[in-house]
Design goal:
Layout lengths: L1 E4 L2 E4 L3 E4 L4 E5 L10 E4 L2 H9 L6 H18 L5 H16 L7 H13 L5 H30 L8 E5 L15 H8 L5 E5 L6 H13 L3 E4 L4 H6 L5 E4 L3 E3 L5 E4 L2 H10 L4 E4 L5 E2 L16 H4 E5 L5 E5 L12 E4 L6 E4 L2 E3 L18
Parallel strand pairs: 6-7, 6-9, 7-8, 9-12, 10-13, 12-17
Antiparallel strand pairs: 1-2, 3-4, 4-5, 10-11, 11-16, 14-15, 17-18
Helix pairs in contact: 1-2, 1-3, 2-3, 2-4, 2-5, 4-5, 5-6
The structure holds 5-S-methyl-1-O-phosphono-5-thio-D-ribulose.
5-S-methyl-1-O-phosphono-5-thio-D-ribulose binds next to helix 2 and strand 11.
Length: about 375
């Protein structure tokens, strides 16, 4: 992604790896849009904590972070005993897997890495294979997002008003984004359109991250309150919805995404507005047979009862909004049924949700998964 810092425009990946220092480099997303800062995690525990605390968030980005974290943990192992190395790797894997439960990309990324490492004949060889596999996952994430852009760009026509929810942009991936990829490709083709970023309470990823990204990219946009989506659709002011996903079931076409996605899908259906989901292949879960089995993360109630922002002093501050003494429920994700989804934009083409299984070989289904 290209970021304006002062007068300079520089390219950054959301997640990268410092091989020399064995550190994972992350854009500190909790500070955006007010401050742009890169942080470095010193070991796999810090990397896992950064995922839990949402220093880094978004399915593809936490997938790459988990892959780098697993490589980081592998490289921190001292000794030559292969059996002990694999036991250590398992511990690191479990810690990173537990960091956040809903997105499947971290598990898919780490499983991919472990398959590569399995062929190593020595600890040193396994460590090298782990690094190569993490880098390959990150590069594949970028390539998939680019292909999603090519597959989906024709959906964006001149003058269109597109609604997106949460942040499935650069910051949710290593680069480019999934839901934003068709927008950026259409923009490069010279098309003019407008994007509504729904705020996405409680953490406001739409208002902070997506709006910031689109501003950096020079895309016309406005932030809307989450509750405004229905009104705009009813008045004919939304032509298309594109969102991302944290886990899409390959067997049923159900889509887990940020809380509020399901509501938008119901509204879009009611108003005959096409509703698309954009995903790289690492977001597909080929195992689960029902959306009800997707683990839905419940986050801290403070997120609902108040809001984080930056005070005039520049300090990141929490403000309590809700009635003191009231509690809250805070499910982070919901599941949209296949029949509300017009199409799933993947690097391999656009599919009806229920056709994913039929096309599984084109979509990276690995029989052992
Ligand atoms: O809680 P987050 O910010 O990690 O949630 C993930 C998301 O950003 C969204 O659900 C997004 O639409 C899919 S991630 C590509």
């Amino acid at each position: 992604m290209n970021v304006n810092i002062g007068r300079k425009r520089s390219h950054f990946r959301t997640v990268a790896f410092d091989l020399k220092k064995n550190r994972v480099l992350l854009i500190e997303q909790r500070l955006l849009p007010h401050q742009f800062k890169i942080v470095a995690t010193r070991d796999y525990r810090e990397t896992a904590q950064a995922i839990t605390d949402m220093v880094v968030r978004g399915a593809g980005a936490i997938g790459a972070t988990a892959a780098y974290g697993l490589a980081q943990g592998a490289r921190a192992f001292t000794g030559r005993n292969l059996e002990k190395f694999h036991a250590h790797l398992e511990k690191v894997y479990q810690r990173l897997k537990a960091a956040r439960p809903t997105a499947v990309d971290p598990v898919n990324a780490m499983d991919q890495l472990r398959r590569q490492v399995a062929s190593g004949l020595s600890v040193t060889e396994c460590q090298t294979l782990a690094c190569d596999a993490a880098e390959a996952f990150a590069n594949e994430d970028v390539a998939h997002c680019r292909e999603i852009g090519e597959q989906g760009a024709s959906l964006i026509t001149d003058g269109m008003r597109v609604l997106t929810h949460c942040n499935a942009g650069w910051l949710a991936f290593v680069d480019i984004g999934s839901a934003t990829a068709p927008l950026y490709t259409a923009q490069s083709a010279g098309r003019k359109f407008h994007v509504f970023c729904s705020e996405t309470r409680p953490r406001s990823q739409g208002a902070t991250l997506t709006a910031w990204e689109l501003a950096q990219q020079g895309v016309s946009h406005q932030v809307i309150a989450d509750n405004a989506a229905g009104h705009l659709m009813q008045r004919g002011e939304v032509d298309l919805v594109i969102v991302g996903s944290d886990r899409t079931l390959g067997r049923t076409g159900e889509v887990a995404n940020k809380i509020g996605t399901y509501t938008r899908a119901v509204l879009a259906k009611k108003h005959n507005i096409p509703f698309y989901v954009a995903i790289p292949l690492s977001t597909i879960d080929w195992n689960l047979k029902s959306g009800l089995d997707i683990p839905i993360e419940e986050r801290h109630e403070e997120e609902v009862l108040g809001a984080w922002g930056t005070a005039q002093s520049g300090k990141r501050t929490y403000v309590r909004v809700a009635n003191p003494g009231s509690g809250a429920r805070n499910p982070g994700f919901d599941v949209t049924p296949a029949d509300l989804i017009t199409g799933i934009i993947t690097p391999a083409g656009i599919f009806k949700p229920k056709k994913l299984w039929l096309n599984r070989m084109r979509l990276g289904f690995a029989s052992e998964s």
